[in-house]
Amino acid sequence: MFLLVITGCITPFVPDIEETEELLVVQGLITDQPGPYTVKLTKSVPLGNANTENPFTGCSVFIDDDLGHHYPLFETEPGIYITDPVTFCGEIGRTYTLLISGRDQTGNIISYKSQPEEMKPVPPIDSIYYQKKTIQPTDPYSSVTEGCQIYLNTEDTEGICEYYRWDYCETWEFRLPYDVPNDLCWKTQNSEVINIKNTAVLSENIIDGYPLLFITPETDRLSEKYSVLVNQYSISEEEYNYWDKLQNVSEEVGGLYDIIPASITGNVYCLQKPEDKVLGYFSVSAVTSKRIFIADNFKGLPDFYRGCPADTVDLNAEIPDLGISVWVIITRDFESPPPHYKVITYYPWCADCSFRGTPVKPDFWED
Predict the structure, then answer these.
(1) For residue 186, what are the contacts with CB-CB under 8 A and spacing of at least 6?
(2) Residues 168 and 182 in one domain
(3) Residue 256: inside a domain, yes or no?
(4) Mean pLDDT by 10 residues, the chain (367 residues)
(5) Do residues 234 and 216 lie in contact, with contact meaning Cβ atoms separated by under 8 Å?
(6) CA gap 296, 38 in Å, rounded
(7) What is the edge-to-edge ordering of all strands in the sheet holding 341-345?
(8) What is the pLDDT of residues 156-173, one digit of tens each?
(9) Do 67 and 137 share a domain, yes or no?
(10) Which of 178, 206, 235 is where one domain is finished?
(11) Residue 305 falls inside a structural domain
């Protein structure tokens, strides 16, 4: 009874916070590579509301350079504004400013402007390479597995870049273990982590063995063939500090007194109310890219399709909801010795790889 009384006194605490202000969130990047470039404008969602997209629509968006040129952006879908690739391409050495004009919650016109950002040159990526990493089992009955650690080397011999950011795009080939029409596919996925490094405190402007990405054996990335395209950006010290704060927030567990993302402001401010917070960053960076392919054997990769077979039915049996909620993955017909049967699954991705990827081989793919 004592324990029941103690536990009965525990009630959930829901803070009563009146948060009606919508903060502008800016995500934009222009480079020295051919466009179009995209600027995404959204409004923040109040605390406690569903985490859904809240696009900032109907805005007039422009990019100005230090030569007096004025480039408009066009809204192609709600909150997504793109440049005209025919009339605008970023140039190293030029300085760019983002201009935004829209209406606030009360219908009044409100304008935003970014700090001028210079496009700094960036050195090429020297090399990208990988090493197998042994993962010891957590219990004596499991076998050793291997992951893949990808590293990056770069060097700025001319001393033009001290602050770097990287992102990457993964593409991997995977194959179904069944004789089905779509058994070979490719899947592409962009990075969602922050990778930054500075050489300002180093005696030499060299980055050697930067651990860019670790691929665990818990996915099918390493089962057939894997490729990653790495983009290297030159950024300012101010932008580096912005990404560094975001990285610290994302890596911490999160407590009552931790920095919250709303306290990390970028380089965009409100002209009418400079004290208002604007989230996100308008990035201006030169970029260089390099791709690596990995086709190797890694220990301990699991059978990702072990749970696919659900039942065995007669070869001529009628299968209700075939192609809707039931799929055939194995057919042993009369051309084979008896018994003759079909094996069905309730998972569509077991019978058709296009549910997870595309059967169209990428143009850059190496056989």
Answers:
(1) 171, 172, 173, 174, 357, 358, 360, 361, 362, 365
(2) yes
(3) yes
(4) 51 49 91 96 70 87 96 97 96 97 89 96 96 88 90 90 95 96 96 92 87 95 97 95 89 56 85 91 96 95 94 92 94 87 96 97 93
(5) no
(6) 37
(7) 311-314, 341-345, 327-332
(8) 888 788 999 999 999 999
(9) no
(10) 235
(11) no
